[in-house]
Hints:
- The structure holds 2 protein chains of 2 kinds.
- By secondary structure, chain A is mostly beta strands.
- In chain A, about 0% of the residues lie in helices and about 50% in strands.
- In chain A, strand 9 and strand 10 form a beta hairpin.
- The radius of gyration of chain A is 13 Å and the shape is globular.
- The mean pLDDT of chain A is about 95.
- Helix content of chain B is about 0%, strand content about 50%.
Amino acid sequence: NAGVTQTPKFQVLKTGQSMTLQCAQDMNHEYMSWYRQDPGMGLRLIHYSVGAGITDQGEVPNGYNVSRSTTEDFPLRLLSAAPSQTSVYFCASRGQGYNEQFFGPGTRLTVL
Amino acid sequence: AQSVAQPEDQVNVAEGNPLTVKCTYSVSGNPYLFWYVQYPNRGLQFLLKYITGDNLVKGSYGFEAEFNKSQTSFHLKKPSALVSDSALYFCAVRGSSNTGKLIFGQGTTLQVKP
C-alpha cells in the first residue's frame, strides 16, 4: 500500500491564482481530512469528509473548497490564493472506529 | 468545543534522563486521545492512543502516556530519553462521536542533548 499520497510536494503561487492540492489513499478509509501547519499554531483542521459525497468544515475553512467524489480522493482547492495561505498542508485518513489517522508527506505552499 | 493545550513550546532534557511532554484537553463526552511525532520536513507519525481501559498507554519507540480524567491530562513520557527522540510532538483529541474531528495542540519541541 502507498498509504496517503499528496501532490505536489512544493508549489509557489502568485496572489489570486487558483490551484488544487491532490490527496489520495489506498486503504479504503472512510474519513479524510485536510490540515494546515503553521509555526506555533500546530495543525488546524480545514475541511474533513466522513465518506464519499459528504464533507464538512473544520476550524479554518475560509478560502478553501473540497469535494469527495470517490473514497480514494479528497482534493483541496484554493480559489484565489492569498499570502495568508502560505503554509504546509497535510492530508490524513482513517478507518472506522477508534483508529488513528495516517498522514501524507505534506505540500509546502508559498503564495507571493 | 474541543480543544487541546500543550503548555510548553519546548522541553529540554539530557540524554538518559526521563522526559515528560504535557497535554491537557477539553471535549464533550469520553475523549479519544492521541500523540503524534514529526521529524524535520516529514509528515506526522502516530505514537500511541488512549481509547478506554488502562490509564497508562504504551506506544512506539518506548513512549508511554498517562490518561488522567480528573485533571483532563494526557502527558507523554519516556523513562530514558535518546538524542534521536528530538522532534516536534503533537497531542490530539477526538470526541466520542465516530465522525468526530481530530483537533491538535500547538506542538512541543523536544530537544534531547547528549
